[in-house]
User: Fold these one by one.
Assistant:
Number 1:
Amino acid sequence: MSKKAIGLTEEGIQIAELAAGGASPAEGSFAALGKTYKDTATLETEEGDTISCDCEELNDPEDEIYLPGKTTLKYSTSDLDPEICHKVFGGTLSEDKSSWDAPTDIAAKEVAVRFTTKTGLKVTIGRAKMFTRINWAIKKDGYGLLEHTLTVLTPQAAGVKKMSIEDTTA
């Protein structure tokens, strides 16, 4: 029977910066960037392209190559505080962690990702480029969110898998 991927466990979506040379991060370095805001998490692969090698002498393509689309994980977290902003954007965090100053330039980070669904499917992404942006509706019923977009990349270190899904209940 197939496993349905429903919801996230309490650990949420966890990330860790890659170790030197693109190696997998240490087990204890994974941490969530906050609670995942309801109905924002999606893992999706775009449609790919088929490149055909057509020639004059044949009606059908002589050869076809399929190029898969990129895979992205998108989700939002509701923990828009100085410590989390420092973690995702860099910049300066005060000693008491009560204030954050944004850096002049914000660069994407390369991270590893993992999360487990409530039904026991563990998803691991070996290497992804993470971009984060602030989406804060400053009004009476507004809510501040950090929107994270992670594009799955090919790992650089040997033995690191691009992406895997494991049934932890089997």
Number 2:
Amino acid sequence: MCDYAQAEFRLDVTPKDSKSTIREHLITIWEQTGFMPAELDLTPPSPTISYLLQFFYELCQSRQIGMTVNPLSFTEIDAWMRLSERPLEWWEIEVIKRLDVIWLKVQNE
């Protein structure tokens, strides 16, 4: 799941001096050539855990941004769980926090 998420996060990066994400550039190449770039050919994680990636994306909408992009806090996760009425197990929170570390790393590359 972490490798898949990292590849997905990298596709959503907008390179300097560009208005499009890497994913958008690669889709354009695919449309023009008929050949799908390998970077787009990702095997999604098992549905038994892929819901956590969707939860992560929902949580990202509440991310605090100041001088830098901040990691998701346990307070934000707790508020999201209460408001969405989706109680998570501790291991699920750990997976979301791990996804956040990967996301932040990709943003800072």
Number 3:
Amino acid sequence: MQQEIHPLKQLLAEHEAFRHSCDDLLGMIERFEREGHRASIETRDYAIMLKTRENIREHLNVHLVKEEQVFFPRLEELVPQGRIKFLFLNYDHEYLRDYFDEFCNIVADYENDAVPMHVSVRRIITTGRLIVHNLLQHILAEDTVYFELAEHGFNEEELHDMGREMLELEAKLKEVVHA
């Protein structure tokens, strides 16, 4: 299957995958909250934890770098003082990275029996809610404001070049992850 070269379609497809991951994570969090102190990590929960961690490690970090190195710099050129106006997008990424790192630490602690299960459940609820809320808000801002700006601000050749660069960067980043 040939990869999509259009940069906005690439990013939108990745956003859709992240929304599905957030839905899975939120479903698990809501069950933990309903069950309160009796909540325990079941096999299906562990599968969601692993899937979320994998999504974070391989896909989300690649997505963030594609935006930071290819998409945001070009988008900033479209708007007077764009660097200042769009700086919070990069700040969002830093906060998201902190939450993702914490989630990966929670999974590692659970796998290594480093903390009691009720502590893991509580940490998953707290960090998972931060991930879901902040990631969905960030995606909403990009989808509704920034992608529309890009769609109208770039010509087809610029979009094609940007998409090609994103695919090349993605290939390099995934090569490093799998090395």
Number 4:
Amino acid sequence: MPTRLRDNPIVRPFFAERPPSNLYFPSRGLGLVLMIFGTIAAVVSLLFVTGVAGLCNGLSLCTFPTVDVLGTVVLMVGWVVATAGFALMLNAHPDGRAWAVYGLMLAAAGDTLSFVGDVIFVGANPLYYALGRGAIAIFIFWLVICAVFYFLVVTSRPAPEAPLLGE
């Protein structure tokens, strides 16, 4: 990965050097925990893709939720990329943080696109009005998860080097 993609204000924001809290997580341990949660999020978003794609099965007056499906696919791809970044963080790879940050940004963009698509779909199909009321809660949930994971990733620190034997 080029240096400009690893060392920029998105991957290394101003608060990363001195986070507001004094909690410092080692990037290897955090990578393991977030990799597990990222895998779960990718599987759940895959279930969302199949569920959203099947909304109009058998209904003649239902318009297909194209933007919503596109948003959930982008959300799923974002979680897969973020999980790959978490795995790289676990292996202490220098590009792990950047992959995780860009994957989380992609997941947040997919979440936003999915929410917009859901609003469009529910507006065009009054049959699904009850479904639209839960969309804001799902949107906020995924956005908060992305923000918390982003904060944890950018404030994580590499594990300290173990002293050599005989020193």
